[in-house]
Amino acid sequence: MLSAGEAEVVTRVCELLVPGSAAVRPDRYLAATLPALRPAEEDVVRAAIGVMAGVTDESALTRLSGSAAFDRFRRLAIEAFYGDFAPPGHTGPTGHDVIDFRPPQAVRLRKDWSFLGHPESAPGPWDRFPPGPDEAEVIVVGSGAGGGVVAALLAERGVDVLLLEAGGFEPAAAHTRFELEARHRLWWPARLVSTSDDQPIALLAGRCVGGSTVINTKVAMRAPELDLGPWYDLIEARLGVRERTDWTPSVHRVEKGFAALGASLRPVRSYTDHNCSRCGSCLQGCPTNAGKSTLNTFLMPALATGNLRIRTRHSVSHVLVENDRTTGVACGQTSLRAPTVVLAAGAINTPQILLRTCEIAEIDTSSSRAVGRTLGLHPARLVYGRFPEPQDCHQVYPITAHHVRDDFVVEATTIQDPVSFAESLVDAEHRPLWGKRLADVVRGYRYWAGLLVMATDENTATIELGIDDVVISKRFSETERRRLDDALAFGIDVLRAAGAQDVVWTGLSTTHMQGSAPMGTAVDEHGRSPDIEGLYVADSSLIPTSLSVNPSLTVMALAAKVAGEIGL
User: Fold this and answer.
1) Which end of the chain is more exposed for a tag (fewer CB within 10 A), N or C?
2) What does the alpha-carbon distance between residue 329 and residue 331 come to, in Å, rounded to a whole number?
3) Each residue of 452-463: pLDDT tens digit?
């Protein structure tokens, strides 16, 4: 619980950050989250309240801009208001009413806010898999584009597979367009990359059975740099990849801007079937299964074979090694045994597991030293243009068109749901947007059309084990800075040429992390570790050079290739 004084500070400061938010009682929203926090985390929250206690006006708040307390309060105000929180007895408009956010799924949803008080590790209502034995022929760590494919293909061959997933099981029936609950149940909490330019990059990824394939936009692009033809064919056939020519008015609107600049906009290929209703829910999970994921396309059929078992809420710390051979994995105090282990926990988590394994097993080789040294990020930002008429980009298939250049890719049209939209906005100096300007921008939510601009990078980010947490850092080269600036400028020019009356943009983020345990250095061309017999990598960590296109199709193709190399 918050004291009366703490509640008053929270309400006052949130109103300065997001005008209008005091009406929905952000202090009560914060109080509802406290039961899920560890004591040390609650201490941080109360310390932030103490820092803000003397703030009574915008000038005092401006002096704290950039501090941890400021960022925490800004997130709190945005979540409470634009997340549509309404305390018991509230009779006035909510944040969604103010911005006219009324997609069909959200309108009919009766929101249950009890999840705020649940730890992220708590089992969800769909986590019903029996544990089964603690050993298998193969243990696969991670169930996304890599792990989901490997586990399914091995199970289809008759192999006894135990699949471990850090998140929960969330089928289509669980997807309700409730943004904050989806973030809690489907996504990793945002992790940040520190950069030489002091512009942090948010790392976004799925944490559920199916991984990021459950919450991505399903864009299917082959990488010409890699020779994966047969495996691309296999994966595309399973997913039913098709071209999306069903553009909505917002795409045709921005297409005029591309044409004015002498640029073309082409349909994307995607792994969505014809049941797609263009409801805009992709990032909160597809409620109709029209969006193909490793969960609904690979894992569910594999479960029916009886050869695949899944354990949810299982985080692996390291691989167990005896006499230079894997014998299983460690999950907290539990040891799970298998002679073959496939790491597919993603380009951020897989290198952490490898680094801990090498540290514990005292492995120091050229391949072990390559782990975590060449992380590619494919950094991106969203650029939004406000038009005179509603664009309603929250009710479209988020990415139906793209423009591809050597240095960057532009995808259209899209918009994040309200909380993510507001949280990610920055000003011209790349500082978080807040106050009246933020409220004015978000109030026009339905009128904004977004372009996702992604710049090719040079695989120079690093991952290292810290004392309490992983340390991820990136130093941008002049070439990379130019690409980022050019991509942003091009997006702005397109929107202006299309008739946008105002333009805003977000900070940097990425869902395309890759290359942190690359083929040819950390592992061989088949994903096999040269240091530990029976250990494989089968996720985006394998990609040797940062791709210029969306990598999920490539990750699945690589995983299929690795699965074929595992002989039992």
Assistant:
1) N
2) 7
3) 999 999 999 999
Would you state the pLDDT for residue 440? 98
Residues in the chain: 568
Q: What does the buried/exposed string (b/e) look like for 437-453 if buried means 16 or more CB atoms within 10 Å of the residue's CB?
A: ebbebbebbbbbbbbbb
d(CA 115, CA 27): 17
DSSP structure string for 10-64:
HHHHHHHHSTTGGGG-HHHHHHHHGGGS-HHHHHHHHHHHHHHTT--SHHHHHHT
Neighbours of 184 (CB within 10 A): 18
Return the closest-CA partner of residue 396 out of 276, 284, 506: 276
The residue among 308, 510, 491 whose CA lies nearest residue 413 is 491
Q: DSSP letter string over 219-271? A: B----TTS--HHHHHHHHHHHT-EEE----HHHHHHHHHHHHTT---EEEEES
Residue with tokens 């299964």: 289
| Residue labelled with tokens 């250990």 | 535
* Cα-Cα-Cα-Cα dihedral sign, residues 354, 122, 135, 542: negative
Q: Give the whole-angstrom CA distance, residue 319 versus residue 300.
A: 27
The per-residue pLDDT for 321 is 98
- Confidence at residue 28, expressed as pLDDT on a 0 to 100 scale: 97
Q: Among 386, 418, 392, which residue's Cα sits nearest to residue 279?
A: 392
Find tokens 């950094």 and name the residue: 379
Within 10 A of 3 (CB to CB), how many other CB atoms are there?
10
In degrees, rounded to 5, the angle at the alpha carbon of residue 28 between the alpha carbons of residues 27 and 32 is 120
Strand locations in 197-247, DSSP E?
A: 201-203, 242-244
According to DSSP, the residues that pair with 376 across neighbouring strands are 514
Q: Tell me the β-bridge partners of 503.
A: 385
Cβ atoms of residues 283 and 178 within 8 Å:
no
Q: In what order do the strands lie in the sheet with 535-537?
A: 308-311, 161-164, 138-141, 340-343, 535-537
Its pTM surpasses 0.85: yes
Question: Which of 65, 63, 83 lies closest to 73, judged by CA?
Answer: 65
| Both structure tokens of 154 | 């091995």
Burial of 403 (0-12, 13-18, 19+ CB in 10 A): buried
> Kind of pairing, strands 425-426 and 325-331?
unpaired
- Determine which helix (DSSP H) or strand (DSSP E) holds 481, and give its type and residue range: helix 478-497
Q: Using one digit for the tens of pLDDT, what is the confidence trace for 314-337? A: 999 999 999 999 999 999 899 999
Query: Cα(551)–Cα(537) distance, rounded to whole angstroms?
Result: 16
Helices 552-565 and 147-156, axial angle in degrees (round to 10): 40
Q: Which single residue is written with the structure tokens 């406000």?
A: 386
Which stretches of the chain score pLDDT less than 70?
Answer: 106-108
- Read off the tokens for 483: 């690409």
Contact in structure between 497 and 260 (CB atoms under 8 Å)? yes
Question: Tokens 């973030």 identify what position?
Answer: 183
Q: d(Cα 89, Cα 329) in Å, to the nearest integer?
A: 50
